[in-house]
Structures are given as structure tokens and as C-alpha cells.
């Protein structure tokens, strides 16, 4: 059943106690366990049993300003994902790492290592760091301007992909008799030189099972979309309506041709925070219960940052004040626009907007029955809105268990989602090709000759 | 038995196929598996069953110049150790991370994460990077001069320890009823400002089970010893004779008082590469067999780098040429001196020196029966030469299995080594105190007040 049908790709976005900002106060969550690896290993196993393509962790390089009221602090992605790799066999493992305050050699190396450790399941959510809180932890006075961050990100990707290619797949000879361990003609310096990075290489780890980790991107600004079209193989994005999703989907897919890429080489996965009930009213009650656990101060802080305006001096039950223009935003530009549009479309008060954002921070929240949720996913998937979804359980682990128990089987019944894994790498799950080694290809055609020493 | 006796501390130093440079050509090794995590997980389990205090990984930030003939390439320490944490429960996990080409925020965060993931088993072997090959992977023209590297390392430690203390142990309140997740008065900015580092903090992960990872150091130069006396809780060192070991031991222990520390707060663990035979002659034959597998080109490369002189133009069976003076060495100064002394003491030809270094790169190699090896360890331990040992199996995993099967039980019979773990943290195994939080203490006495926001 469904063998020949186009298949949904599902990622589960794991965030400590869940995506709803008040989830840590909910009776079904375990905020005491957010630094306990066994808690995350349990979640990873649930997601793997449900046949998700991948799981994903967000990240930032400064403590959240909202830790007084929010459970947003905890383990670091590389160490966490490596520990998850040990207890899973199929599910992809996608970590967020910034190109702004890192060195490409370190990042290329750690992802290659994670890809070896997981036997081909690593993915990199490539982000730029856009807050002064992060800048101040890395000896910088201020954070980089938006377009400069993307320039650096592009060069960062050029360096890391070159480093991953600095070893040919056949470089390890391991001939005990002759005493030749590695064929040095297949291990190359990359000699990247610019004002930003001077990196000689080669990398100090052989090429990994997937060649490169799956390259993922989440920014949806103009710069972000162009970056995605050039490099990304999957996008985590946020849209509230099918029309917005269709527009984004068509826009990004169209940009790929300019980089010699085909539409299937980039999977677009909008976020959805599903609140699941046996009946629609049960689902709405769950949503209401979560929203009543929110602390307005927390949401106001977050929304004030998002909109670059201090909302504390305005009445909660009144409308939004006048807002800055998009060009004045040097943080997440696309999220700004989405929130402004949402408030306008639904004519929301500040409190109403806080509640609409509490579940997914701008990602779509949908409360309904498993059938209703499956209907929504199918509609977007079949009508040019997405290639799958970034599933953001409102609370963990129970919200993921409910999705696995009630929504996944419904999607499987409709022939839209796998019932077994057919491969064991993340590229395999997503139907993405293994990258060709740029140097090996050039060497075969005689274009390069300079091997390492 | 042996309850009241002073106990040996044993670390196993894991290096791909083993410490002997030709180990990858030996019939008992698995060079095909050096990027396979299951291989390392097997080794970690053997070490844990043998009750080792810890296992340890070396590291460098450039590919070895010797990969043509040596299996020195592979997984990255943080990802590797996190994957080992998942399959072990007691053994300490010590990773090498350089202070020269890293940011203190990243390093502090990853060690705190590894310490949480392993539930208190992380250790940091603090090194400085001393090769131009490394510099060229990190946008630097040349590597830092020796004393500058140590200045940076000291400041790096000041920043990381402050970051680990930026969260008090009781900062997470997690009060569902009031909606208070964290007590922000117990989460502090560190506001470190100098020409080298400007780091505001706080760290974005709560204080870990051990407070700090166990701080380990391996440099034995003057700068290295002084650094160790100030910060280190364990030293991996290399001495060839009991007299050298006694001198080093007394020298370093004496320096601790100047930093208000007692001798027990620093464990000194000389390296030993044990080649184990049922009889002494079987052990010597094993050593000979390994030495015959060496490729002279490989050893000459390594020794030329160590001594800062090109040895390729001198006859292998002749003496060492005239060497530069210690002050001209900007790499590993203490290893230079050790090798010069070894060649002189044993009146070695270049080939003879290559063979003496093939097993442990300057660490002591000893071939003998389990009884003879236990005698050697006991002699150094009881006569002021060490607090335990850094065990460097010549080949893996068999060399570790032999040590676990034949030498450990002999040490246990003598009441010198644990038969069961009595705790579950690395600090517990080593008898080291959990660091006091510098800010909590100051706050209790009224000396600081500036909490985070």
C-alpha cells in the first residue's frame, strides 16, 4: 500500500519539556529530567519506533533571558546527539550549530564524527547567531549585521564542504603487509584563504558515511531563502496558512534551478504544534489548559524581543501598538513578518497573540482529533504546501507518544508515511543523494593534482 | 583486604589500534574499525569491568603528518566520549581539548554537558596547541610561542571555571505552582574582560554533577608544571626511570602549597606501555615482533619533529647528530629532554632509539610477566614515584584485555587496587573534592550581589 505514492517526511523537533512555553508546568512533563540523558534517550526511542525520518534540536549560545519562567536550558547538541546515536539505529539526528561564533574546522570535524558514530544519520541545522547576548559570550561587542552573517555562513559552508571532501572515500588503504595505512594522494589540503577564514586542511577524520551531514536551514528571510536554495537539503519553516505555505514552497523551489539543483533536492518541512484530543472539544480544552498555565511576563518578554518593541507598557487586552518596519529588524526577519500578519489576520489582542504563540513561537498550532490533524497535514502535503512536517509536540514525552499512537497510524493507513524504515541513513530516509567529492571528481578529470604533502 | 591501604589510580589511555606505532599492522588489532563506535564501546566496557578509574583520549587539531604509515586519525573526543557514556556507568571519561584554538564558552558548555550525560564522569585533559599544522586550520599564520600559550591557557581556565560556577547548584527551582523555573539570583554573569577574552556569561547549562570536570594536564615543562600546580587534579606524565619519576613527583607536589593546595589534590600518573607475556622471554619476543613491524620512515618523521632536526640524512645504525638546545624547542619541551636523556643513558643508535620510542612515544615501555609488571608499578607507587599509572596498551583491544586479565588481579591480590567501584563519579574514584562555587561562597559572605539581570 502506498508504495508508489509520494511519501511524507516527518521530523520531530525536541525541546526539553515540549514546545508549549508552559509545558514544564503541565502534569504530563518532567522538567526535573532536562539534564538527564535517559529522558532524551526515551524520547528518541519513541520517535524511532514511530518511524520518524529524524529528530532535531534547536540551540543558542547564550542562556535564555526567560529562564525565570521557562525550561529553556540544558544539554549541548553534539554531546546529546552522540549519546542518542548509541541507543538508536535508524532515526536521523539533526543538531543546530551556528556559523557565527564557531570555527569551520571544529564544526566539520564534529559533524563528520557524529556521522561516523551514527553510521550515516547526522544532519546540521545551519544557523547564524543574531543576538547580542550571544556576541557577548564570544569576545564580540555586538552581533553581526544580518547580511554579513549570511556572507559568513556561505563561506563557512564552502570551507566545511571542502573539508569533508578533503578525504576521498578510498583514502584508507590499511595494507598491513606493505605498511601503507592511508593513500596520501587521496587526502588533500583545501587551502581556503580569505579575510574571514584561512583553513589549510585536510580534516583529521576520514570522509563519513553520508559524505556530508544532511544540510538543513531554518531562516526564511530573503537572505535565508537564497542561502537555502544554494545549500540546504531540508528547510524547517513556519507558516500559519496553506496560502502562505504554498507561496513559500513555490518561491524556494523555484530558486533551486539557479544553483543547478532540482526541486527534489530540498525538502520543505513547515512546523506544526499538534494538540491532540479524542474529540475536537477535548483538544481545545487541552490547548486552553496549557494557555492558562502561561506566565504573561514570559510571553511579553519573548514577543517584545521578536517585535523589537517594549510591550510591557500596553494593556494585555488591547491591540498591538505601532511596530517598527521590517528593515529595522536585525534578528529573525521572517518570524517578525509572520507574527505581524497573524495578529492582523485574526484581529488579536496582545493576550490573544501571546496565546496563539505559546505553543509554537510562530509555528502553526492546531488542536483537533487525529483525523483532523491528518487531514491538515495531507492537505498541505498534497496541495503544494510542503514535503512533510516538523512536528513540535506541545509537551514531552506524552505529546509525542500521542502523535505516534494516533496520528502516525492514520497517515500510514492513507499510504502517506512509511511503516518500516527502508534504509539506515538520514539521506536514505529523505531520498537525498550522497554528495559527490569535489576533489575526487576534479582529480579524475585531471583538474587538480595537489595532494596532501 | 587493602581497605586501609593507599590505592593505585589507573587510567587507560586509548589510542585507536594501540600505542605501539606499528600496532595497526599487528594480527590482534582492528584498524578497519577505528571510525566504528562499537569498537570503542567494547574497549570501554573491558576497562570498566577491570575497574579502571578512567579512560582517556589524546587529541590534535590537524591530521597527523604520518598517516601514510600510522593509524592516527579518527573520531572527535566530545562525540566519542558521549557515545561511550551511554554504554558505561562507572568509568571516568577524559577528553583532550586545546585552549589555543577554542572558545572558553564552547568548551565549558560541552564539558558540563558531558558531565551531565555521564552523571559525573567527565575529565578534561587541558592542552595547548603547539604545531603550525594546527595554526593553519584556524586562520593563524603561526602557532603561539610556548609561554604565551600557557598565559592563554590560564586565562581560559579562569573563564571556564567561572562559567561552571555561573549557576549555583540550587538555581533550578522548578516550582510548577508559582511558575518559577529558575532562581535568577543564583544564575550570574561572570563579566570576564581582558584583551584575550571578553565573556559575559552565564553559561547556558546548569552546574553539572561534579561542578567542574576533573582537570587533567600533561605538559611537564616548567610552564606545564606550574600550570598543573595551580589547576590540575591529575597529571599524565612520562618518565623512564624511578629516579626521574621521584624527582618529578616531589617537584610538582611541592609546588601545590603556593596555591593553597594539598598534595592529595593532584594525582600524578606516569605513562606505561606494558607488553605482557606468560614468561619474560615471551614478552620480549612480543616487543621484538612489534618493533619489526615499524616503518623507519614513520619513526624518523616523528623523532625529527620531536628533536627539531632532520634525521633522514644520518645512518640509522649510527648515533644521534648534534641537537638543538632546549630553549630552541617551541613544541613539547619536556619530551625533548626525556628523549635526549634516554638516548644518552642507554647509548642508543638512531634505530635503537626508534625502537625504544615505538611503544609509547617517550612513555616508558616495559616488557615482562604480569608479576614483573605489577612489581614495577608497586615499586614506583610505594617509593614516591606516582599515585597510579596511565596504562597505554601497545595494541588494542587485546593488550587491554591481557592487562585486565593478568595484571589487575595481581594488583588486587596485593591490596593495591579496587575490586569494586565504591562511587560513580570520576572525582569519587580519584578521591578529589567537588569544587566549591566561587560565587555562591562570595554571595553567602556578602561579597557579590550582581545576579544575572
UniProtKB/TrEMBL annotation, chains A, B:
Domain Luciferase-like: 23-380
Record GO terms (molecular function): monooxygenase activity
UniProt keyword Metal-binding present: no
InterPro entries, sorted: Diverse_substr_monoxygenases (IPR051260), Luciferase-like_dom (IPR011251), Luciferase-like_sf (IPR036661), NTA_MOA (IPR016215)
Record's keyword terms, sorted: Flavoprotein, FMN, Monooxygenase, Oxidoreductase
PANTHER family per UniProt: ALKANESULFONATE MONOOXYGENASE-RELATED, C2H2 FINGER DOMAIN TRANSCRIPTION FACTOR (EUROFUNG)-RELATED
UniProt similarity note: Belongs to the NtaA/SnaA/DszA monooxygenase family.
NCBIfam families named among the record's database cross-references: FMN_nitrolo (TIGR03860)
Protein's UniProt name: FMN-dependent oxidoreductase (Nitrilotriacetate monooxygenase family)
Species annotation: Paenibacillus aceris
